[in-house]
Amino acid sequence: MELKSSVIAAHLVEAPLILSIDIGTSAVKILFFDRMGRAVEGNQYRCKVALRTSRDGASEVAADELLDIVWRGIDTVLAKAGPLEPKMAGVAVCTFVGNIMGIDRKANPLTPVFTYADSRAEKEAVRLRTEVDESEVHDRTGCHIHTSYLPARFRWLANSRPDVFFQVDRWLSIGEYMEMVLFGETSVSYSVASWSGLLDRQQLIWDEPLLNKLPLEVARLSSLVDINAPKQGLRRKFASRWPALKRLPWMPAIGDGAAANIGSGCLSPSRVALTMGSTTAIRAVVEKPIAHVPKGLWCYRIDGRRSLPGGALSEGGSLYAWMKNTFQLADSAEFEAALNSLVPDGHGLTMLPFLAGERSPGWQGQARATIHGISQATTPLEILQAGMEAVACRIALVFETLAELLPDDLQIIAGGGAIHNSPAWLQIITDVLGRTSAVAGIGEVSARGTALLAFEALGVIRDLKDTPVFIDRTCYPDEERHAIYRQTIKRQHRLYEKLIKDDR
Question: Domain residue spans in the chain?
């Protein structure tokens, strides 16, 4: 189905509407979508999120501070809704995943929300790998043993903060905690649970063999549900604050990565979603069971019938922002033009872009960023270029492994803030991959995908394939640059082999 624009004026919407809440590590975004997956013009909320980070690998945020941003955003959007209010059919939520927090018996937070980027559990991850067969764990859960997942993090918390750890009554993700605050009870979707490293991806139950290796009982985790199990009936405090929402179904939170695939139109194995926000992911939707997950990849769930194989980098827009701030680069528009004039890989630099440790494909959480080859002639712009090329090379490694599970006639759909804000970076990625990339013509792919999945769960949409796919532009590879970048990948691999110890 073809439509001209992914944004629709309020008076032209096709009812019903979904209020979509996207809780990310960089920002909270709240907006309306109509049944065709078009964002309603002029009524969107966005607020930055400030994570606390430290040199020892911390990455965390206070749960109530994060939810306060969400509550203010709902206030803002509903205040502008006007005639849209009676057209709402439900509320959908997606969140950054791989996060966890602990609450007491009265649902008060005892810990901050630890994000997937928190790497302080590296020693516990190394120890756990010696106690289990990681290949078996990987096949059962779809996840490697790594700091971005919960098994190692639970061990770290029990060892480093036993006084707090053993007071925790329940362990929740931020989406579950939001449900607890709003409804007094909670559950966790297969989607969010699959990012924990503790879900048996085939049986869709908590993985008992792995839990037996942890100081954790299954009773301290939420019950598992599919994404078509909404909650209704807000607590009195919130029902009076948002009368329009008090009886609407609130869908269980799903992973923002799963939502991004759906939102960008990547609904089948023939379309691969490349999403670059603060981090980067390459994913495909697969309905048939995946018997064996290739080493280096993960395999999450969208819901009870769809899997999501792929890989993720801790780097993306976060690396871009770090380099821009550190080297005090000029306005983005200025150096975007300058980047286009630079010779590909002409700076003499080799970079491993692991500011927050490595995820796919090597899963070395202790890895750190390295820039090799700096001379007196090296400029900040060249370092930025080297960083962008380095991330693109890591994307290529993941893509090549994922492609083994998929048909030959792949189409790449790229999206996310970093892609939309940097055409130069998209061209670099396209040249490195040597494949044509189509750019999703949607600003908020995760929020859109969350809304579409809610429409499907509510029976408003019978088949997601009937929804439109919005393409902004197409980027074509340059074969000469592709050949140059194949050598860049080899050089990066040699540096990786010298500096990164493989403890597996």
Answer: 7-256, 265-441+470-504
